[in-house]
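Below is a filled-in request sheet from our internal design queue. Each sheet records the structural input a requester submitted and the sequence that came back. We keep these sheets so that new team members can see what a complete request looks like end to end.

REQUESTER: design group, bay 2
PRIORITY: normal
MODE: inverse folding
CHAIN LENGTH: 328
BACKBONE (tokenized):
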């Protein structure tokens, strides 16, 4: 079942096209929407909530048409905006209760849900303090609480870690992951920080300049490559262990390149066609040969082997590759 669907969704402004024929199909779970500032992330959220009209194309949220059923969508969806306008003289309890009532909850239910939600986001002990005295991290938690208080089926989180220090980011990312794991609420979270989305998302949608670069599961983005990452230490005999390893591998006919620090990337050769094992088994056999060759070379050179592992794609690499493909 799709949670969000767009078909050729386009949003034009007089001087810029914010979304350009964007077609995506987002299922349940935690989905990261990644793109640089100005990529069209916030514009997409406004259209999905029925707060801004599209110039062309369609968008549906939880099976409802965003162009005509915005009110019904907002009853079932929580929204955490990037920028806040929290009233400084109001307590978190008063504010979240008000937002719960605005979402249609009766007074008693609103107060009960508010207490539970503020406890979940870690603000229960501070719930009666005026929000003007809150830190940035606490304000972000209040925004998250008001998005969750009416028990939505989906929450849209726009740059939820904005302005947070590393510890605050880790805590916020943990909360986001728990939203789906513990409560079954689907999440669409935007960020321009690729590493954050890689940590918490099941799927990632990458956009740039309003265009779709790629949409795939995290497992697909970070799949193992045929490249081997090897990290070695220097030795008295070989003060530059990385260079010695590169030269020795080249002498054995292996293609290797220097990475950062003392890391060497080794490309496994393509397996020869054979009538016996399938392609996966053949590739594994080749990788075993490369592993053995690397261990032998490192031992012969007297270098210390820190680690040897299959290299995995990172989202940042895929994002950069996608941008280069679009430009070409």
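RETURNED SEQUENCE:
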């Amino acid at each position: 079942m799709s949670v969000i669907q767009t078909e050729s969704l386009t949003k034009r402004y007089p001087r810029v096209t914010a979304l350009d024929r964007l077609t995506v199909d987002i299922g349940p779970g935690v989905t990261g929407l990644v793109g640089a500032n100005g990529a069209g992330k916030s514009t997409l959220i406004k259209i999905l909530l029925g707060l801004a009209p599209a110039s062309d194309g369609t968008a549906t949220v939880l099976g409802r048409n965003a162009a005509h059923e915005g009110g019904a969508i907002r009853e079932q969806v929580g929204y955490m905006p990037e920028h806040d306008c929290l009233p400084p003289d109001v307590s978190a309890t008063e504010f979240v209760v008000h937002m719960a009532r605005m979402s249609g909850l009766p007074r008693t239910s609103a107060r009960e849900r508010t207490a539970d939600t503020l406890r979940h986001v870690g603000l229960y002990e501070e719930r009666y303090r005026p929000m003007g005295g809150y830190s940035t991290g606490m304000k972000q938690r209040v925004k998250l609480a008001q998005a969750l208080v009416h028990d939505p089926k989906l929450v849209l989180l726009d740059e939820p870690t904005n302005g947070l220090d590393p510890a605050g980011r880790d805590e916020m990312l943990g909360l986001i992951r728990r939203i789906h794991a513990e409560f079954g609420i689907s999440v669409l979270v935007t960020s321009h920080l690729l590493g954050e989305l890689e940590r918490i998302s099941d799927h990632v949608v990458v956009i740039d300049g309003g265009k779709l670069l790629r949409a795939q599961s995290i497992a697909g983005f970070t799949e193992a490559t045929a490249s081997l990452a090897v990290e070695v230490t220097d030795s008295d005999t070989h003060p530059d262990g990385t260079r010695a390893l590169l030269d020795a591998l080249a002498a054995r006919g292996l293609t290797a390149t220097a990475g950062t620090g003392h890391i060497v990337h080794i490309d496994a050769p393509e397996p020869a066609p054979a009538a016996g094992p399938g392609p996966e088994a053949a590739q594994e056999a080749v990788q075993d040969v490369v592993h053995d060759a690397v261990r032998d070379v490192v031992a012969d050179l007297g270098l210390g082997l820190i680690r040897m592992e299959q290299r995995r794609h990172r989202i940042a690499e895929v994002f950069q590759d996608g941008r280069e493909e679009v430009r070409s």
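SHEET NOTES:
- The domain at 4-221 is CATH 3.40.50.300 (Rossmann fold).
- The two ends are 35 Å apart (CA to CA).
FILED BY: M.R.
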